[in-house]
Amino acid sequence: MAQESALEARSEASGAADDRALTPDEFNAAVAAVTNAFGDPTRREIYLAVRDAPEGVTTADIAERFALHPNVARHHLEKLTGGGYLDVEIARADGGRPAGRPSKRYRATGDATLAVPLRQDSVLASLLAGALDALGPGPAEALADQVGYDYGRDLARRMDPGASHRSVRTAVAAVADALTAHGFAARAESDGDAFTIVSECCPFGDAATRYPHVVCALDRGMIRGMLAGLYGETSPHFEASRPDGDDHCVARV
Protein backbone atom coordinates (compact mmCIF):
# COMPACT_ATOMS: atom_id res chain seq x y z
CA MET A 1 0.00 0.00 0.00
CA ALA A 2 2.81 2.41 0.83
CA GLN A 3 4.43 1.74 -2.54
CA GLU A 4 1.12 2.35 -4.34
CA SER A 5 0.64 5.64 -2.45
CA ALA A 6 4.13 6.76 -3.39
CA LEU A 7 3.50 5.94 -7.05
CA GLU A 8 0.19 7.80 -6.98
CA ALA A 9 1.83 10.85 -5.40
CA ARG A 10 4.60 10.84 -7.99
CA SER A 11 2.04 10.54 -10.79
CA GLU A 12 0.03 13.47 -9.40
CA ALA A 13 3.19 15.58 -9.10
CA SER A 14 4.18 14.74 -12.65
CA GLY A 15 0.72 15.59 -13.90
CA ALA A 16 0.81 18.94 -12.11
CA ALA A 17 4.13 19.76 -13.75
CA ASP A 18 2.75 18.84 -17.19
CA ASP A 19 -0.30 21.06 -16.67
CA ARG A 20 1.71 24.23 -15.98
CA ALA A 21 1.48 27.05 -18.50
CA LEU A 22 4.14 27.06 -21.20
CA THR A 23 6.65 29.87 -21.09
CA PRO A 24 6.84 32.04 -24.25
CA ASP A 25 10.04 30.24 -25.33
CA GLU A 26 8.46 26.83 -24.76
CA PHE A 27 5.33 27.82 -26.67
CA ASN A 28 7.36 29.18 -29.59
CA ALA A 29 9.51 26.04 -29.64
CA ALA A 30 6.47 23.75 -29.59
CA VAL A 31 4.80 25.65 -32.43
CA ALA A 32 8.03 25.61 -34.45
CA ALA A 33 8.40 21.85 -33.97
CA VAL A 34 4.88 21.04 -35.12
CA THR A 35 4.95 23.57 -37.97
CA ASN A 36 8.27 22.23 -39.22
CA ALA A 37 6.86 18.71 -39.36
CA PHE A 38 3.24 19.34 -40.38
CA GLY A 39 3.17 22.78 -42.01
CA ASP A 40 3.02 21.19 -45.46
CA PRO A 41 -0.45 19.71 -46.24
CA THR A 42 1.01 16.87 -48.29
CA ARG A 43 3.29 15.95 -45.39
CA ARG A 44 0.30 15.84 -43.06
CA GLU A 45 -1.44 13.41 -45.40
CA ILE A 46 1.72 11.32 -45.66
CA TYR A 47 1.96 11.10 -41.86
CA LEU A 48 -1.65 9.92 -41.63
CA ALA A 49 -1.00 7.33 -44.34
CA VAL A 50 2.05 6.01 -42.48
CA ARG A 51 0.15 5.99 -39.19
CA ASP A 52 -2.55 3.84 -40.79
CA ALA A 53 0.01 1.32 -42.08
CA PRO A 54 1.23 -0.69 -39.07
CA GLU A 55 3.48 -2.76 -41.33
CA GLY A 56 5.25 0.43 -42.39
CA VAL A 57 5.80 2.06 -45.77
CA THR A 58 8.71 2.65 -48.13
CA THR A 59 9.59 5.73 -50.13
CA ALA A 60 8.27 3.98 -53.22
CA ASP A 61 4.93 3.33 -51.50
CA ILE A 62 4.50 7.01 -50.67
CA ALA A 63 5.71 8.17 -54.08
CA GLU A 64 3.16 5.96 -55.80
CA ARG A 65 0.28 6.76 -53.49
CA PHE A 66 0.73 10.55 -53.66
CA ALA A 67 2.07 10.75 -57.24
CA LEU A 68 5.37 12.24 -56.08
CA HIS A 69 8.90 11.95 -57.35
CA PRO A 70 10.76 9.51 -55.05
CA ASN A 71 13.14 12.28 -53.95
CA VAL A 72 10.19 14.45 -52.89
CA ALA A 73 8.56 11.54 -51.05
CA ARG A 74 11.87 10.80 -49.31
CA HIS A 75 12.20 14.46 -48.26
CA HIS A 76 8.77 14.42 -46.58
CA LEU A 77 9.49 11.12 -44.82
CA GLU A 78 12.86 12.33 -43.56
CA LYS A 79 11.32 15.58 -42.26
CA LEU A 80 8.89 13.50 -40.22
CA THR A 81 11.67 11.16 -39.11
CA GLY A 82 13.92 14.02 -38.04
CA GLY A 83 11.03 15.43 -36.02
CA GLY A 84 10.64 12.15 -34.15
CA TYR A 85 7.22 11.34 -35.61
CA LEU A 86 8.40 8.33 -37.62
CA ASP A 87 10.79 5.48 -36.91
CA VAL A 88 12.86 4.08 -39.75
CA GLU A 89 14.53 0.72 -40.27
CA ILE A 90 16.36 -0.95 -43.12
CA ALA A 91 14.21 -3.37 -45.11
CA ARG A 92 16.35 -6.50 -45.55
CA ALA A 93 16.17 -9.18 -48.19
CA ASP A 94 15.68 -12.85 -47.26
CA GLY A 95 18.53 -14.07 -45.11
CA GLY A 96 18.98 -10.73 -43.38
CA ARG A 97 21.44 -9.30 -45.90
CA PRO A 98 20.68 -6.26 -48.06
CA ALA A 99 20.20 -6.95 -51.77
CA GLY A 100 21.70 -4.01 -53.65
CA ARG A 101 20.72 -0.73 -52.03
CA PRO A 102 18.41 -1.61 -49.13
CA SER A 103 15.20 0.38 -48.80
CA LYS A 104 14.03 2.08 -45.66
CA ARG A 105 10.71 1.27 -44.05
CA TYR A 106 8.97 3.98 -42.04
CA ARG A 107 6.49 3.51 -39.20
CA ALA A 108 4.67 6.06 -37.04
CA THR A 109 5.95 6.47 -33.50
CA GLY A 110 2.66 7.77 -32.13
CA ASP A 111 0.25 10.70 -32.35
CA ALA A 112 1.69 14.15 -32.96
CA THR A 113 0.99 16.49 -30.05
CA LEU A 114 1.74 20.14 -29.29
CA ALA A 115 4.15 19.40 -26.45
CA VAL A 116 7.63 20.37 -25.36
CA PRO A 117 9.79 17.22 -25.59
CA LEU A 118 12.22 18.25 -22.87
CA ARG A 119 9.89 18.77 -19.93
CA GLN A 120 11.72 19.17 -16.65
CA ASP A 121 10.86 17.15 -13.57
CA SER A 122 11.48 19.29 -10.49
CA VAL A 123 12.99 16.52 -8.35
CA LEU A 124 15.25 15.29 -11.13
CA ALA A 125 16.27 18.86 -11.95
CA SER A 126 17.24 19.44 -8.31
CA LEU A 127 19.27 16.23 -8.26
CA LEU A 128 21.13 17.18 -11.44
CA ALA A 129 21.77 20.69 -10.13
CA GLY A 130 23.35 19.27 -7.00
CA ALA A 131 25.45 16.86 -9.03
CA LEU A 132 26.71 19.64 -11.30
CA ASP A 133 27.65 21.78 -8.30
CA ALA A 134 29.53 18.86 -6.78
CA LEU A 135 31.42 18.07 -9.99
CA GLY A 136 32.66 21.57 -10.62
CA PRO A 137 32.57 23.44 -13.94
CA GLY A 138 35.34 21.61 -15.84
CA PRO A 139 34.27 18.00 -15.25
CA ALA A 140 30.59 18.97 -15.56
CA GLU A 141 31.14 20.52 -19.00
CA ALA A 142 33.18 17.53 -20.16
CA LEU A 143 30.47 15.13 -18.99
CA ALA A 144 27.72 17.21 -20.62
CA ASP A 145 29.62 17.29 -23.91
CA GLN A 146 30.07 13.50 -23.90
CA VAL A 147 26.44 12.84 -22.96
CA GLY A 148 25.28 15.21 -25.68
CA TYR A 149 27.58 13.64 -28.25
CA ASP A 150 26.41 10.09 -27.44
CA TYR A 151 22.78 11.19 -27.56
CA GLY A 152 23.37 12.93 -30.90
CA ARG A 153 24.95 9.80 -32.37
CA ASP A 154 21.94 7.79 -31.19
CA LEU A 155 19.55 10.27 -32.83
CA ALA A 156 21.55 10.03 -36.06
CA ARG A 157 21.33 6.22 -36.01
CA ARG A 158 17.57 6.45 -35.64
CA MET A 159 17.30 8.96 -38.50
CA ASP A 160 19.66 7.04 -40.79
CA PRO A 161 20.09 3.41 -39.66
CA GLY A 162 21.88 2.59 -42.90
CA ALA A 163 24.78 4.78 -41.74
CA SER A 164 25.15 6.17 -45.26
CA HIS A 165 26.73 9.57 -44.79
CA ARG A 166 24.89 12.49 -46.33
CA SER A 167 26.19 15.68 -47.88
CA VAL A 168 27.00 18.41 -45.39
CA ARG A 169 23.97 20.39 -46.61
CA THR A 170 21.46 17.59 -46.02
CA ALA A 171 23.13 16.60 -42.73
CA VAL A 172 22.88 20.16 -41.39
CA ALA A 173 19.22 20.34 -42.45
CA ALA A 174 18.48 17.04 -40.69
CA VAL A 175 20.24 18.23 -37.51
CA ALA A 176 18.16 21.43 -37.54
CA ASP A 177 14.97 19.39 -37.89
CA ALA A 178 15.93 17.13 -34.97
CA LEU A 179 16.86 20.11 -32.78
CA THR A 180 13.53 21.76 -33.60
CA ALA A 181 11.71 18.61 -32.53
CA HIS A 182 13.60 18.82 -29.22
CA GLY A 183 12.43 22.38 -28.56
CA PHE A 184 15.29 24.47 -29.98
CA ALA A 185 13.30 26.04 -32.89
CA ALA A 186 16.33 25.59 -35.12
CA ARG A 187 16.84 26.29 -38.81
CA ALA A 188 19.59 25.59 -41.33
CA GLU A 189 21.17 28.42 -43.32
CA SER A 190 23.82 28.46 -46.03
CA ASP A 191 26.30 31.06 -47.23
CA GLY A 192 28.42 29.76 -50.07
CA ASP A 193 30.32 26.74 -48.76
CA ALA A 194 29.48 27.53 -45.13
CA PHE A 195 26.42 26.10 -43.39
CA THR A 196 25.01 27.25 -40.07
CA ILE A 197 22.48 25.93 -37.57
CA VAL A 198 20.60 28.76 -35.85
CA SER A 199 18.63 27.92 -32.68
CA GLU A 200 16.13 30.50 -31.46
CA CYS A 201 14.96 28.78 -28.26
CA CYS A 202 16.47 26.81 -25.41
CA PRO A 203 14.28 24.06 -23.94
CA PHE A 204 16.29 23.82 -20.71
CA GLY A 205 14.74 26.91 -19.10
CA ASP A 206 16.27 28.01 -15.81
CA ALA A 207 19.00 25.37 -16.03
CA ALA A 208 20.52 27.25 -18.98
CA THR A 209 20.66 30.40 -16.87
CA ARG A 210 22.14 28.68 -13.83
CA TYR A 211 24.59 26.45 -15.72
CA PRO A 212 25.02 28.14 -19.11
CA HIS A 213 28.35 26.56 -20.02
CA VAL A 214 27.22 23.07 -19.02
CA VAL A 215 23.95 23.31 -20.93
CA CYS A 216 25.74 24.77 -23.96
CA ALA A 217 28.25 21.89 -23.80
CA LEU A 218 25.31 19.46 -23.91
CA ASP A 219 23.76 21.25 -26.89
CA ARG A 220 27.05 21.40 -28.75
CA GLY A 221 27.76 17.75 -28.04
CA MET A 222 24.36 16.84 -29.52
CA ILE A 223 25.15 18.79 -32.69
CA ARG A 224 28.59 17.19 -33.03
CA GLY A 225 27.15 13.74 -32.42
CA MET A 226 24.39 14.11 -35.00
CA LEU A 227 26.80 15.53 -37.58
CA ALA A 228 29.24 12.68 -36.90
CA GLY A 229 26.53 10.11 -37.53
CA LEU A 230 24.95 11.78 -40.55
CA TYR A 231 27.97 13.33 -42.26
CA GLY A 232 31.22 12.40 -40.50
CA GLU A 233 33.38 13.64 -37.67
CA THR A 234 33.65 17.41 -37.84
CA SER A 235 34.38 20.35 -35.54
CA PRO A 236 31.65 22.96 -35.92
CA HIS A 237 32.48 26.50 -34.81
CA PHE A 238 29.98 27.81 -32.24
CA GLU A 239 29.73 31.52 -32.92
CA ALA A 240 26.93 32.71 -30.67
CA SER A 241 25.11 31.62 -27.53
CA ARG A 242 21.88 32.81 -25.93
CA PRO A 243 23.21 32.34 -22.36
CA ASP A 244 26.08 34.67 -23.33
CA GLY A 245 23.60 37.39 -24.34
CA ASP A 246 23.29 36.68 -28.06
CA ASP A 247 19.89 36.59 -29.76
CA HIS A 248 20.45 33.06 -31.09
CA CYS A 249 22.75 30.10 -30.71
CA VAL A 250 24.76 29.64 -33.91
CA ALA A 251 26.89 26.69 -35.02
CA ARG A 252 28.86 27.01 -38.27
CA VAL A 253 29.91 23.86 -40.12
Gyration radius over CA? 20 Å
Average pLDDT, all residues: 81
CATH level-1 class of the largest domain: Alpha Beta
Intertermini distance: 55 Å
Fraction in helix: 40-55%
List how many beta strands DSSP finds.
7
Class from helix and strand fractions: alpha+beta
Written overview of the protein:
- This protein is α+β, with helices and mostly antiparallel strands.
- It folds into two domains: 21-108, Winged helix-like DNA-binding domain superfamily/Winged helix DNA-binding domain (Arc Repressor Mutant, subunit A, Orthogonal Bundle); 122-252, Muramoyl-pentapeptide Carboxypeptidase, domain 2, CATH 3.30.1380.
- It is built from ten helices and seven strands.
- The strands form two sheets. Strands 4-5-7-6 form a four-stranded antiparallel sheet. It has a three-stranded antiparallel sheet with strand order 1-3-2.
- A hairpin with a 2-residue loop joins strand 4 (186-191) and strand 5 (194-199).
- The radius of gyration is 20 Å and the shape is globular.
- The relative contact order is 0.13.
- The model is unreliable at 1-17 (pLDDT under 50).
